[in-house]
Design goal:
Elements: E1 10-13, H1 17-28, E2 33-36, H2 44-48, E3 57-58, H3 62-67, H4 77-82, H5 85-94, E4 99-101, E5 106-109, H6 114-127, E6 131-133, E7 138-143, E8 148-153, E9 158-160, E10 163-166, H7 181-188, E11 193-199, E12 203-205, H8 208-213, E13 218-227, E14 256-266, E15 270-272, H9 274-287, E16 292-297, H10 304-317, H11 323-328, H12 333-343, H13 356-367, E17 369-376, E18 384-389, E19 407-409, H14 423-442
Parallel strand pairs: 1-2, 1-10, 2-6, 10-19
Antiparallel strand pairs: 3-5, 4-5, 7-8, 8-9, 11-18, 12-15, 12-17, 13-14, 13-16, 14-15, 16-17
Bound molecules: flavin-adenine dinucleotide.
Flavin-adenine dinucleotide binds near residues 181 and 383.
Length: about 450
Amino acid sequence: MINPSNKAGVIVIGGGAAGLIAAGRAAELGAQVTLLERMEAPGKKLLITGKGRCNITNTAPLKEFLTAFGPNGRFLHGAFHRFFRDELLELFRQKGVETENERGGRVFPVSDNAADVVNALVSYGESHGVEIRPNSRVITIERDCDAVTGVRLESCEIIPAGAVILAAGGASYPATGSAGDGFNLAEALGHKINPLYPGLVPLVLKEISFAIACQGVALKNIRLTAFGCDKGSIPKMTIEHDYGRGTGYEKPAKPIIESRFGEMLFTHFGIGGPITLLMSQAVARALDSGPVSISIDLKPALSNKELDARLQREFAASPKRQLPAILRELLPEKMVEVMAGMSGIPLGRTASNFTVEDRRALVSLLKNLTFEVRSTLPLGAAMVTAGGVELSEVDPKTMASKLVPGLYLAGEVLDLDADTGGYNLQAAFSTGWVAGESAAKFLGAREPKTS
Ligand SMILES: Cc1cc2nc3c(=O)[nH]c(=O)nc-3n(C[C@H](O)[C@H](O)[C@H](O)COP(=O)(O)OP(=O)(O)OC[C@H]3O[C@@H](n4cnc5c(N)ncnc54)[C@H](O)[C@@H]3O)c2cc1C
């Protein structure tokens, strides 16, 4: 049995966003805390967040914030109620990190330097006596029949503990240290791990030569729609609003998987860019059960009829223009040749000689440019890991494991992932804070003060 007066410490596994804040909070409440980090220094992933600028959180109202996580966002109510954006930003402010808000409610340090965020979190912990041990990879969490008793390192050292916080992250960007150990450690203690999927990841297209020809082209104000069928079976339909997580239209009519308006990018293997990343997790899941195609509407502001009318006006104004010149008015230069080839219209045909069928083919290509998705890039290349420790096995108010007394879980190891915009880090910080507080309380440290 754990003696509540026993000052055997808290072990935190993982020095990422969740682990650093959990360690600091548990130590602030009087627990003796050791943070074990497998890499040579904590915060490796934090350093690359937001392209090195660290998008810490988002200014979205709570309801909107939670929808960025899809249905699993419900789990975060308790943690966000205890420690949310204002408390987080106040903690950073106290540690000398001022922040500013940007487009889309994204919050960044004024310094634009993710290292300041890492240093603030390390300083928060160290000021309360947290011992950070780098190069310390945990390979098992030890338990007896009552509760956790400690952890075993790769070096075979066993470190006793009264409580363990598992904050080892997901399985994406493994070079930062988050290589999936957290899932193995939780599973070994009986936790269910929901299937892992890449979240926020580019897509690989079958039509690789098109992607290569257009590599680097960024398309703005277009509509990208993913369908759960092959491209020949994409229904003829007009899509008027976004579908997908956080859009208010969570359940689109089949075969639509998601549809988003915004910016995307051609890469040498397929497509990336903001709206591609947003729909990638839904695409990854759909690929498990059948073919997935995408359609790009390059002129979403115009209906087919309106686009046809615009073409007719332009043709009348410049009757001698040939197909490439016509396309140049409508598309980025790099797409002209490959789109002209796809249209099936002879290159030398002048506007005055375009038939109704030619115009129809052109309108169809611009409104419904279709490709088949081969795959997503692998989990290692994803910004977040979707899936993970089943949430019903974790108490959302305390982050305590419902299976193993003394075990707490926080951050991306949980089956939580959100859109881009600072949501993922806020979830890691909030769940980490609550886990730190609960672990300290479990060991009989001071009652948590309301912050
Ligand atoms: C390129 C990129 C950019 C991103 N940008 C943003 C952004 O701007 N805003 C945002 O909200 N989210 C962003 N994210 C997502 C965000 O970084 C993660 O969701 C977040 O870091 C998760 O925090 P965590 O503490 O759970 O895990 P991590 O930050 O991954 O930390 C886990 C730590 O555990 C350590 N560890 C793993 N296994 C062991 C073990 N066995 N023993 C000891 N230590 C171990 C790891 O080395 C690591 O340091 C980005 C992700 C990527 C990849």
